[in-house]
Amino acid sequence: MRSSRRQMLLATVLGWGAALLLFFPIFWMVLTSFKSEIAAIATPPQFLFAPTLESYAEVQERADYLHFALNSVLISVGGTLLALAFAIPAAYAMAFHPTARTRSTLLWMLSTKMLPPVGVLVPIYLLFRSLGILDTRSGLVVIYALMNLPIVVWMLFTFFKEVPGEILEAGRMDGARTGSEFWHLLLPLSVPGIASTALLSLILCWNEAFWSLNLTTSEAAPLTTFIASFSSPQGLFFAKLSAASTIAVAPILVFGWLSQRQLVRGLTFGAVK
Amino acid sequence: MSFTTLDQGAEVTAAPPGARRRSAFPLLAPSVSVLLLWMIVPLAMTLWFSFQRYNLLNPEVSGFAGLENYEFLVTDPDFWASLTNTLILVGSVLVITVGFGTLLAVLFDQPFPGQGVARVLAISPFFVMPTVSALVWKNLMMHPIYGVLGSLARAVGMEPVDWFAEYPLLAVIVIVAWQWLPFALLILLTAVQSLDHEQKEAARMDGAGPVAQFVFITLPHLGRAISVVVMIETIFLLTVFAEIFVTTSGGPGNATTNLAFLIYARALLQFDVGGGSAGGVVAILLANVVAFFLVRSIARRLEV
Amino acid sequence: MATLQLRNLRKSYLAHEVIKGVDLEVADREFVVFVGPSGCGKSTLLRMIAGLEEITSGDLLIDGQRVNEVGPADRGLAMVFQSYALYPHMTVRDNMGFALRMAGVPKPERARKVAEAARILQLEPYLDRRPKELSGGQRQRVAIGRAIVRNPRIFLFDEPLSNLDAALRGQMRIELARLHEDLQATMIYVTHDQVEAMTLADKIVVLQAGRVEQVGSPLELYHHPANLFVAGFIGSPRMNLLEARVLGADGAGVMLEAAGARLTVPAGGASRPGAAVTLGIRPEALRPDPAGAFAGEVRLVERLGGLTLLHVTLVGGEAVVVQIEGSDPTPAHAPVRLGVEGAACHVFDAEGQALPALGRHPLAA
């Protein structure tokens, strides 16, 4: 049993080593956010220092954090719900009423995701301008829903596929029509899958930084825009940058940690049978 | 630019036992049509602009340009550099994330104290928005004077590296790989955990050591999962933008300009909508070429 | 009253025909078992009756009404699935009441019927549990309960016991037989297990490759198999089959030569002298007999206590199994002679069809 103990020790060292290494930039960011600007650029870097909240105060003074955070929440949730509304029926149709074209349709949907947004940025920008929805939350909600729709459809499809066919057949023997089959059987059975899909969609929306940078300026700007404003000259103010970054990331990070079990279980895209 | 004709050769999907004959197209139609719109309308507009002289600043410049924009594009060294950069970026990040992702997945499959917490820490970068991770890496980590890496280098008596000046593309690759490694880890870990332990035990009885077990049992089992990781990551990596926007703005020179950034620079920094659109059309073509091969080689391994 | 008629029922997937014309009559309160090797179409046939698979052609009649186009829920049937297909997110109570809920039955009546079914199946203590908190046997009972609650015209069972261990399977088999008697219902049951078929059925339907090979009572199939397939499929250990040659025929039956022995089998039908046929002998019809017709050597002895199985290689090289009641002393590797009653033998012609026996077994009339 010596070798197994040694193996355990090795796994502990390597596992924790890798985890700490990967997490270090985040840890350092949070640490720096509590430093004064002077301490933030001290060389060698300081691990021990007198913590201060002054950077957070300054960040809040410069830009109204809550405004951006609220936009992020509303746009992410809105985009996710809209995507689910379109995707659930589509995934249901493909999983339970497959035709010869189902496979092609699914792959086609995914291939739309490969279009670089920049390729269509100009027309979308001009379209938004003429529709008067530049810098509005609803504009971004629509974009995000469309952006994530293929991935959401695919994930839901793989979850629906896992629902045992016999259970739905039993439902049909029991007299469930398409509607009640969906509400009473399929939906409750795939709650974990839908949750995990929504989770991924929320994360992708929250972190999306192309459309938000290009289509919003202030009114509807989410946290990605908020943080980008700290990028250029002010970037050298490490503590403020860290403070802004920390509050931009914190909500989704905590949310991700809390739901990571769900995510770990769900994020397979049908890769695990 | 659709792929509906892509795998006509694929076998007819057999209806599962629960399938009803009746078509469910009405349920599918909304998604298909909005995606089609989302694809066709901007695509048509992009295509149209790419044949126009169109500058947002200079209304004098207008009219049909023919292939002028394309000619300008393909003779532009920046364009070819951006194409190369795009491919290098996608390729390197895929190799790094799949390689380390597999190793980490096997590692996190072993029981060790605090494994749950370690796993949470390891997947955290996935939740960090690209703009933040780019800023944190650029300033807090890779800054030649104040960055942690520079301090580390000095501590061991080496000259600190000015990452974004000396190895700009590598720096971007590191940042993007850091963001996507957790994603690969998440999927591969689920796949590793689904491996039947009796298979590994049988291999051990057959005299396979840990390495042989990994190569002959674990790795083949991960085939599907790796396919999925490659597919999804490619989708996102082809369109990397924020990391470059925030850190290097494509520079120095064109060292970190990928296709996505090039189009952005042309259209919205130089206000040359025609030229930018031509780049957009090329990007779409590239995406389709990649998609074609990717979907061909990978999707057939998936039970779709 | 619930009768079922199948008239030339067919099913094809694309160009591939899986059910190739099945005719069958199921009488009221009859327990009919479909058996056959895997892939023979027995489950497909059941699912066609259930309405889960479309019928390509032919007629399906329940109580004389054609129901081809009627949806599964409206045929008045209930089905117990192989995987039980319990709704994992519902309690036992909700699982059993789901069909009634779908049918819009008011709550008090629903509760009464569920309680009644739970009482019959002794599921009362488990009504508020979820399927995953139940043992395999309990899940099985819930699945049956779900069927009972609907008070269906016909019960359908798709290999319901195949996920249970051997002991539980034996117990559930008895419970099912009791249930059939209590409910006085028509039941159709699919299995590949011939013990289930023999013990439960009033009528067995043997299927192979989408066709009915034979329909009859268990003992009819056992004692008078219509062809080689049924002869080989029903009975364990399997019927011994020996190559044989016809020597002649008279009023007493057919005279054969097989494995160096001559015997007369009381079977009719036209058989030319010299024709090649197959002689079938059930293992229990053979017995060690110093004056027996067949000579051979014991290769292996399986002693099961109550039974002894001798594996014997005959002079010609063909192997037979002999089943003897009790513990037989014959050692392995001993030379042995085997005797057989001609009346216990079966003869199959070159096409595999049985020559008609001149006398019927008394229990298989």
Describe the protein's architecture and organization.
The complex is a heterotrimer of chains A (273), B (304) and C (365). Chain A is 76% helix and 0% strand. Chain A is mainly α and 273 residues long. Chain A has a domain at 64-229: MetI-like (MetI-like fold, Orthogonal Bundle). With 304 residues, chain B is an all-alpha fold. Residues 1-21 of chain B have low confidence and may be disordered. In chain B, helix 2 (68-74) packs across helix 13 and helix 10 packs antiparallel against helix 13. In chain C, the strands form 4 sheets. A 6-stranded mixed beta sheet of chain C has the order 6-7-8-3-9-10, with helices on both faces. A 5-stranded antiparallel beta sheet of chain C has the order 13-12-11-14-20. In chain C, strands 15-19-16-17-18 form a 5-stranded antiparallel beta sheet, with no helix packed on it. In chain C, a hairpin with a 2-residue loop joins strand 1 and strand 2. Chain C contains 8 helices and 20 strands. Chain C has 365 residues and is of the alpha+beta class. Chains in contact: A-B, A-C, B-C. Chains A and B meet through helix 1, helix 4, helix 5, helix 6 and helix 7 of A and helix 1, helix 3, helix 4, helix 5 and helix 6 of B.
Category from helices, strands and their pairing of chain C = alpha+beta
Beta-strand share of residues of chain B: under 5%
Count of discrete domains of chain C: 2
- H/I helix tally of chain C: 8
The CATH superfamily of the domain at 83-258 in chain B appears as MetI-like
Order of helices and strands of chain B: HHHHHHHHHHHHH
CATH superfamily heading of the largest domain in chain C: P-loop containing nucleotide triphosphate hydrolases
Number of helices of chain B: 13
Mean pLDDT of chain B: 80
Shape of chain C: elongated
User: What is the SS-derived class of chain B?
Assistant: mainly alpha
Distance between the amino and carboxyl termini of chain B:
21 Å
Number of strands of chain B: 0
Taking pLDDT < 50 over at least 5 consecutive residues as the criterion, the unreliable ranges of chain C are: none
Low-confidence stretches of chain B: 1-21
Largest interface: A-B, 109 and 125 residues
Oligomeric state of shown chains:
heterotrimer
Strand order of the largest sheet of chain C: 6-7-8-3-9-10
Key structural traits:
heterotrimer; A: 273 residues; mainly alpha; MetI-like fold; 14 helices; globular; C: 365 residues; alpha+beta; Rossmann fold; OB fold (Dihydrolipoamide Acetyltransferase, E2P); six-stranded mixed sheet; 35% strand
